[in-house]
Amino acid sequence: MKKIYSMLHGLGYCVLSLLMIACYGDFLEIEPNRKLAVPTTLKDLDALMDNTTLLNANALLIMGEIGTDDYYLNETDWNSLTNPYQKNGYVWAKDIYEGQQCPGWNNAYQKILYANVVLESITKLERNHKNEVQWNRIKGTALFWRAWQFFQLAQIFCDDYQKETANQKMGIPIRLASDINQPNTRATIEDTYQQIVQDLTEAGDLLPALAEEKTRPSKQAVYALLARTYLQMKDYALAKVQAEKCLSISDVLIAYSEVNSRLNYPFPLYARGNTEQPLLDAMIRTQTFASFLKIDTTLLRSYEAGDLRVATYFSVSNGYYVFKGTYNGYATYNPFPALDEVYLIRAECNERLGNHEDALRDLNNLLIHRYQKGAYEPKTMEHTKNILTEILNERRKSLIFRGVRWSDLRRLRTEAPYAKTIVRVLGNKKFELSPEQEHLYTWPIPDNVINLGGITQNVR
User: Fold this and answer.
1) What is the CATH number of domain 2-274+333-452?
2) What per-residue string of b and e applies to 262-301 under the rule 16 or more CB within 10 Å gives b?
3) Where are the domains of the chain?
4) pLDDT beyond 80 at 257
5) If pLDDT is split at 50, 70 and 90, which confidence band does 183 have?
């Protein structure tokens, strides 16, 4: 198995360079050793899909978080940033990378390569009554990880989904095989999302309802991600269906009154025992979020008395509020949809579909688990002016640093009541991101990928 990992870590990166995916440093100099072992058994493929160091880490949605309004940096800290994409991304600059690598892009396509190798290899192995469960799980896992990477890439590197233009605008390069001779072109946004849905739908038919380990995907994880995907597509009926399928498997919310908010990280380590989190994943660790972020004061003021999210999500360091409420139970942030997000997706879909009482029921059910016992007064139809506004506000307050705020800003920028202009102030300089600046809501394709040719750059 060590040979297999060597092949996919070394050769994998080199293959990616030929696929117009940038490689890291020394890997460019490595000539693939064709004598290395290749995966030939279910055990081999299982081991590849259990490579948690690769698959459950370095999620690229952190790149979207860099541009959001949930935090701010002061001028001194901003000047201290050493990575161009973190520094330039904070002010939505035209030149993001300054010629350097984009780890988010690289990591995503490496994971896609792993998934494609497994999907190609498993077709050569017979499925029979003895291995059917394992065979199905391995194929479903590969489809899931590929879809999850495609989804994340779509949130960062192509425009937000608009049904009217999705067939005309550029999506991402969709790699469905490890063959280096595939054309290097970008699919449309419509084709990008349809591939995500197709992979997840097939994965859902193959995976178990719940996984034995949080590092492995499951039907529940598939339905949660489909719910998020359809929400981005503004298909509220289908998003609701997927949310309901997810919650039908398990709908247990955490009572924050039973969480020890005094801990540095209040939630269970590696999400084990976290009833809301179907999957362990971790966003890329960045200097911005590890050392310098300060929670937006307007966001802090939006929490009411008795709301335990303040003590559970935040702590004070050097006079500023910082974030500690990761569902991973340690320093990295988990971007994968948890059940609180699924409740909020169903609530939003119900409200947009005219099911007002159902929307309030989900909202109240979530919030009663977030307040001190007896402190939350359920919202009613008579006393709630705008249910959708309440739901969207709770998305921001509940899902901070979960990889969704950037996507929400993108999808809501065309809805006047919910569109927002973000302002950054650094010394005497002011930077703004308005809803009309569509091009700034899409990150550029990394410079080295463009330089290799075959990929069209985003307008910036």
Assistant:
1) 1.25.40.390
2) eeeebbbebbeebebbbbbbbbbebebbeebbbbbeebee
3) 2-274+333-452
4) yes
5) confident
